[in-house]
């Protein structure tokens, strides 16, 4: 150390004093403490610590004393754990201050820190950016326009951010409900077009169906969804990110089939390919069922489901691997016991392994349609083992998915409550 006097130095951390020799500071495991060894002046020292007492050669750090005590235990014994009854993020901030990282924690505490940080990442991402002093006084050029775009974006993206956003969300939900009712009613026998129409009649019916009440309602709903999607695209900050969002992709999948069907109706006319086009039109119109997923924009439950699937894709893949491995084993054994051996009774339902896979999947999920079942004693014993193992295998990853679902629900509830507070402030103003 090139500054200070005496053979030892004193670190005062939140009122707790620690005495060290000068040589120990040179290779001290904490980077902030080791930086004291290279300080040449009092100004350099004050860049590292909060205060310095020249007479006592004492360096003061205004930090959490108990957290530093646990950090000193890591320096002495090599194990770093969280302080009991202290927030994990607060202790992590202390670690960063002294020059440690999350990898220095013991494995159990690393998992606690990862869980805690994953809980709060959505909170910080949802906070409004750039609320600083530059927002006061004179505003930069174009600030009014950006503020208007931000309000429009929040109105269309956050249903609980304002009164206008709630009204817009209510109208959008009504349009989704009406479109779903029309879609379901169009499959009733009274509404369905007869199948024995000629090509000319079918062409005339397809062209006139747009002018029917159901076609008019469908066109109005599509017009609303299209206008909503265009406005949201215009006011979005990042156009590329807007296109990549899952909910926006679902919106496009729900809207484009209508325009494709209209174009196909216009271009096919009375062509001989109309019958083949008619099947395509029915498939495209049935894709309107994606409009139900649009409700995820307005309901926390559906948002929680989507966020859970996004975060638990590893667990979902693990679950599928469990099922596929079990299907391969039990289907091969059931085909062998029911049809492959010469036992006098052959079960034709198990003629092949792919056919036995259907029995395995409905047995493991305890659905049990009863369309096929083993008839031999070894086959029935295998069926019981298949059912029990299915229950066990399906239950193993469910715990992780459940905890992730609860965590995602609390995150989205927190975000919704934050916007509800801004809505209450709007009412008061």
From TrEMBL:
GO terms for molecular function: delayed rectifier potassium channel activity; potassium channel regulator activity. GO terms for cellular component: cytoplasm; voltage-gated potassium channel complex. The chain crosses the membrane at residues 163-188, 215-235, 247-269, 289-309, 316-337, 349-369, 381-405. Belongs to the potassium channel family. G (TC 1.A.1.2) subfamily. Kv6.3/KCNG3 sub-subfamily. PANTHER family: POTASSIUM VOLTAGE-GATED CHANNEL SUBFAMILY G MEMBER 3, VOLTAGE-GATED POTASSIUM CHANNEL. GO terms for biological process: action potential; protein homooligomerization; regulation of potassium ion transport. Keywords: Cell membrane, Cytoplasm, Ion channel, Ion transport, Membrane, Potassium, Potassium channel, Potassium transport, Transmembrane, Transmembrane helix, Transport, Voltage-gated channel. This is Voltage-gated potassium channel regulatory subunit KCNG3. It is a multi-pass membrane protein. Residues 7-116 form the BTB domain. Its main location: membrane.
